[in-house]
Design brief:
Layout (H helix, E strand, L loop, with lengths): L12 H29 L18 E4 L10 H9 L6 E6 L5 E4 L10 E6 L7 H19 L3 E7 L1 H13 L5 E8 L6 E2 L2 E2 L17 H6 L2 H4 L6 E8 L12 H5 L1 H5 L5 E8 L12 H12 L1
Parallel strand pairs: 1-4, 1-5, 2-4, 5-6, 6-9, 7-8, 9-10
Antiparallel strand pairs: 2-3
Length: 298
């Protein structure tokens, strides 16, 4: 390819020499750019076609709480790596418009990778929107890896992402096998429609007073995938008389049972007690890590 350079002054033979040097310089520069472009275009990204037995991959997705990020998931994710459940951690960043960018990739033969999900619009207070972002994440992973099963772990608002995801997609997307809810505020938050020791549950787990978000989830009593999902519900009690983790009452966390009773494959509750059972400390709690490891391993 040739280029003509017009220098708007006349210096006799010097002009010809300068033209040649400039053309040589530009040619080298374009060659380097071309090679760089080829390297970028050929950068390898693992997809389902690169993974034998792609249907065997069952990732565990972590969803953080309101105002938080994927960093809140790092200890729990690392505890699974340390326990030998996986060697793979992938990050999924979700824009406020639902565009998902993956960082990292599934590895051949590592069938239980971790996906740390981060929502950029992390102060959005619409739980249904969080469910849409969870859906976008699952769709992106399904398109990339053609997975058929997955697990989900949520902390705080991350639990609402899971619940609203299930409300809208309980039968359409890859099967959810295991669901871990940590510090879930299914029927309200202290100071926002709930106060310590005010909310009460009936013997079947039904709240005597339901908040709007909880009422919106009631259809799950008929649509939650039947006998498919094993559920572990972890909540904190600071042991200070409030029967709460400082932000969410134990009754609000335990109200999950009524929403999925009779439909979950199994359901169990675990209470963490003491100062480290505070709401924002539960995702960095060694006892929670152990419960999570045992539940996912089994």
């Amino acid at each position: 390819m040739s280029y003509e350079v017009n220098l708007n002054f006349d210096l006799g033979g010097s002009v010809i020499l300068m033209k040649k040097r400039l053309l040589t310089f530009m040619g080298i520069g374009l060659l380097v750019l071309g090679l760089s472009a080829c390297g970028t275009g050929n950068k390898h990204t693992t997809t389902a076609s690169d993974l034998p037995n792609s249907g065997k991959y069952e990732p565990t997705l972590f969803f953080h709480g309101w105002g938080s990020s994927y960093r809140a998931e790092k200890q729990m994710a690392q505890s699974l790596v340390n326990a030998g459940l996986t060697k793979t951690i992938v990050r999924a960043t979700v824009s406020k418009h639902g565009k998902v960018a993956l960082s990292g990739q599934f590895r051949k033969g590592d069938y239980h990778p971790i996906v740390e999900v981060g929502f950029e619009d992390n102060r959005n207070s619409n739980p249904r929107q969080w469910g849409r972002w969870a859906e976008a994440t699952v769709i992106k992973l399904q398109q990339t890896y053609q997975m058929k099963k997955l697990n989900m772990v949520g902390h705080s608002m991350g639990n609402m992402a899971i619940m609203y995801y299930l409300l809208d997609n309980s039968h359409k997307l890859p099967k959810l096998q295991k669901q871990v809810d940590i510090a879930g505020h299914f029927n309200g938050i202290l100071g926002m429609g709930d106060e310590p020791n005010q909310m009460t549950l009936q013997p079947n787990g039904k709240p005597k007073k339901m908040q709007a978000d909880y009422k919106a989830l009631l259809p799950l009593r008929q649509t939650y995938p039947k006998h498919q999902i094993a559920v572990l519900n972890i909540y904190g009690d600071k042991n200070d008389g409030s029967h709460s983790d400082g932000s969410v009452s134990n009754a609000s966390s335990k109200s999950l049972r009524y929403l999925i009773a009779g439909r979950a494959k199994s359901y169990q509750e675990r209470k963490i007690v003491g100062p480290n059972a505070q709401h924002s400390k539960l995702h960095d709690n060694a006892h929670v890590d152990k419960l999570l490891i045992d539940f996912l391993k089994n």
